[in-house]
Structures
1.
Amino acid sequence: MILHGMLLLSLGGMLTSVDYDSAVARPEICMPKAQRAAVIRRVDAERKVPVSVQELESLKSVVSSLGGKPDYARILILAGREFHIDPVFIAAVTHVESSFRPRAASCRNARGLMQLRPIVLEVLGVTDPWDPHQNIMAGAAYLQNCFERYKHCANSTHLALAAYNIGPGPVEKLNRSEAARRFVRKVLHVYNRLTDSPIPMTGKGIKDLERSARSLGDRKS
């Protein structure tokens, strides 16, 4: 089951990435134990949770405009609910990472729609990285973890995206990475075209995305 591997980690436990930039290694999964247990119980069950027609059609339009299958909209909505991130933001990350190709694989063995590298797949207990539901749910879980890790920093959204892209690490190293800066700019460019609440390129925090997630139901098709 997705995320069952998180039970094996203590709060703040670390794993070392062997296939990513060693200067920005050691991804940390620090989700509270109670929250992890709730996620484990609900991820598979939420495949059947009802979604409003308005919400679903709105996001289908967004996903289609990015080249993805409309069927992915439901998964994105469920991931957004579970991990408190605007589904449109998750869609923007997915578009930049893989152009919504579920079989995408990088030279560093990152896999699937959200390009999850092996250490993340292992930690989150993903059994099939090519399955869109598992991949998007795990990608959103990891993205939320990155937000939590840097939420007290200035430019927290930029740092969280950079950490998602190249692996968590010290702020100064994330800020120095040109690859991470390019990724952040691409994601925000896509997101800002699709939302009524754009994030300035100077960066805002996770609270902005949570507000966007809460207002998704009011977004017009």
2.
Amino acid sequence: MNTLDRKFVNRILWCDCLRGMRSLPDCCIPMTLTSPPYDDLYLYGGHAFDFETIATDLFRVTMVGGVVVWIVQEQIVDGSETGTSSRQRLFFQELGFRLHHTMVMEPYAGRSHSDVRYGGSLQYAFILAKGMPQSINLIRDRLNNERGRTRSFTERNRDGQVRRRHTRTTPTFGARGPIWKYATGLHIAAERYTNLHPARMAESIARDHIISWSCPGDLIYDPMCGVGTTCKMALLSGRRYLGMEIHGAYWVTALRRLRKVRQAIS
């Protein structure tokens, strides 16, 4: 594991992430959380998106046991999905990432406006790990229907013989499932001026992934940080952050946002 120079800690850099990542040593990032462009859905200032080069460098800078959370959604063209996220997932595996988990980020207001589909395409969170993730902190806020009930269980060997019998009391709360619901629209961030970004990540999504796949004090990296949602929620979750953003208007907004958060918690 390599350590980062202090100039990369708790900073949001105005740069192309490909150029920025070249300054990072190998195996230095414990967690990346990012939401890249969804095909050609938005322009994002007209900047190019070189997926394969970005993915390759992400594998290089991710430490062993580190995680990349890649949140992406298909564009629908002529009523059909492009398949881009599927190709990205396979490419990550070809690089050597382990596909630890595929999750769905489902909006609360997910209504269909199509006569040929059951709603829009799914928004995925690919949990990509370099080896077995070193930090797994499952959020346990699902209320169990049989909470407090004690039941008996048996386990069997492969030959069918009973190996062990034990009892277990169902806890009040269990771990979440792989589908997370979240709010959409203009109110997913406290700062209304972040609305200039056409596809902000919901703060609740960023917070919950950071809590799930990192520990306090870890550095959370976002190579395409937009208006700084990942960086903000890393700071509020007791983590450090590093963001990179190529589009000047988003970068200025992210700096303003993080400055206000720092003032509020100091």
3.
Amino acid sequence: MRLLLLLLAFCALPAQAQLPLKPWAGGATPTLELASLDGQPQRLEDYRGRVVLVNFWATWCAPCLEEMPSIEKLRRSLDAQRFTVLAVNVGEGRPAASAFAEKMGLGFTFLLDREMKTSRAWGARVLPATFIVDPAGKVRYSYYGAIDWSRPDVRAAIRELVVE
């Protein structure tokens, strides 16, 4: 319950779009094994060789929804063989997440963390929370709050990992 209240409080704050991506200092990359909207199991290890943007979000989080179009724009601008997006829905069920994904027309993979175990393991105590994982499977950057993923500095940091 405390986690949910903290998530709700943070989502009410304005976007911190001026802050840069923060280099990851959280140690080893947490495990990520969740089902997609179609029920297929997805593991972060399955994406080795790609840069992965892992975004924790919820349909009730306005800043989460605001940044989704810029995540999609970033995804479309990068090589699909080398970059992917995993959007982890926190605490909601398949119907809510599916309806949102369909309505927004986003082309990335949506995962379900209904029990919030994965979001806790990743330290996603506020939403949105985003982590950039390099092709070797190591978290390189994190960002808490909404950000414009089309910003030149953000794109440059991710593009650098994509071409490594």
